């Protein structure tokens, strides 16, 4: 495995001259943005937004979204790590692909620090714990009381996702065992919650908000420092009595190791400009998403902090790739 990682990490060093030449003419063909989750998920929605933003910022360049779901995003991440660093392939990275999966998957075939070039942090979102109304609880305290009295199932969008982290923090904080049900398709998890096949779910604001407003789901708590303007009636996790359940989902852009600085700079500039657009900010606010942005170096430092933090949580909660 180390030999394979080494080959991936040094791929960008083998052809420096050609990489420089390609950077000067880039983009000379469609850019592929690899999204690590299925179409219709929160990550896919963000990915399509990012693709449009890059296209605008690069004067109308073609950016194609390539959904490659599987193994908590590691299928997509490995694929991008193995591509030539010519700007033809970028990854929409997540907290799972670059901060959590390395601690859960012993056979992970990429190194999130060594095998990628950080480009730019894009956006972040809080997550909520929601339940189906028929379950009974209307508050976190009532839900925890129920979980003490009988088994409850808590779904997430998959291994290593923010939902998985939320479940781990909730169980370690309260000392209550709850069945974690990781889904490969978050849309299927939402459907199963609405139909009563599962009891509860951790997921992003933009996907559960319509169901909460329609009365089809009950929001028990949302992560973050206070209540969200998008869902003002849902208490924060601190208000709900579980302040340590503090996890935020984030999306960023990474390229293969060795991606030329000129390409990094152009994509970084395009995304940062888009994140300042009033229409983008208004759409984010409606969906409980916040802009990030910044330099590639700032993304690298942020990623390291997240990697270290979630590694400690994974060890304490004994998180595994199996749930």
Automatic annotation (TrEMBL):
<protein>
    <submittedName>
        <fullName>BUG/TctC family periplasmic protein</fullName>
    </submittedName>
</protein>
<dbReference type="InterPro" id="IPR005064">
    <property type="entry name" value="BUG"/>
</dbReference>
<feature type="signal peptide">
    <location>
        <begin position="1"/>
        <end position="21"/>
    </location>
</feature>
<dbReference type="Pfam" id="PF03401">
    <property type="entry name" value="TctC"/>
</dbReference>
<keyword id="KW-0732">Signal</keyword>
<comment type="similarity">
    <text>Belongs to the UPF0065 (bug) family.</text>
</comment>
<dbReference type="InterPro" id="IPR042100">
    <property type="entry name" value="Bug_dom1"/>
</dbReference>
């Amino acid at each position: 495995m180390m030999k394979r990682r080494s080959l991936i990490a040094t791929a960008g060093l083998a052809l420096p001259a050609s990489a420089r030449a390609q950077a000067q003419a880039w983009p000379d063909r469609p850019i592929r943005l690899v999204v690590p989750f299925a179409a219709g998920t929160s990550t896919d929605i963000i990915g399509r937004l990012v693709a449009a933003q890059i296209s605008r910022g690069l004067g109308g360049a073609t950016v194609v979204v390539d959904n490659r779901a599987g193994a908590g995003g590691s299928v997509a991440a490995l694929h991008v790590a193995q591509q030539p660093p010519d700007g033809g392939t970028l990854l929409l990275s997540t907290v799972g692909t670059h901060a959590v999966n390395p601690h859960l998957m012993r056979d992970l075939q990429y190194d999130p620090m060594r095998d990628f070039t950080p480009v730019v942090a894009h956006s972040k979102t809080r997550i909520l714990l929601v339940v189906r109304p028929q379950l009974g609880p209307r508050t976190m305290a009532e839900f925890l009381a129920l979980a003490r009295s009988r088994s409850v199932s808590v779904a997430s969008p998959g291994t290593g996702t923010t939902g998985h982290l939320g479940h781990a923090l909730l169980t370690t904080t309260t000392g209550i065992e709850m069945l974690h049900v990781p889904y490969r398709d978050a849309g299927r998890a939402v459907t199963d919650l609405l139909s009563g096949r599962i009891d509860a779910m951790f997921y992003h604001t933009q996907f559960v908000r319509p169901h909460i407003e329609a009365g089809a789901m009950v929001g028990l708590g949302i992560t973050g420092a206070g209540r969200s303007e998008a869902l003002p009636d849902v208490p924060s996790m601190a208000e709900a009595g579980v302040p340590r359940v503090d996890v935020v989902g984030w999306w960023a852009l990474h390229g293969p190791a060795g991606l030329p600085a000129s390409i990094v700079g152009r994509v970084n500039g395009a995304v940062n400009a888009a994140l300042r657009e009033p229409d983008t900010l208004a759409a984010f606010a409606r969906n409980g998403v916040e802009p990030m942005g910044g330099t590639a170096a700032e993304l690298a430092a942020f990623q390291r902090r997240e990697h270290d933090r979630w590694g400690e949580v994974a060890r304490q909660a004994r998180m595994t790739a199996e749930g």
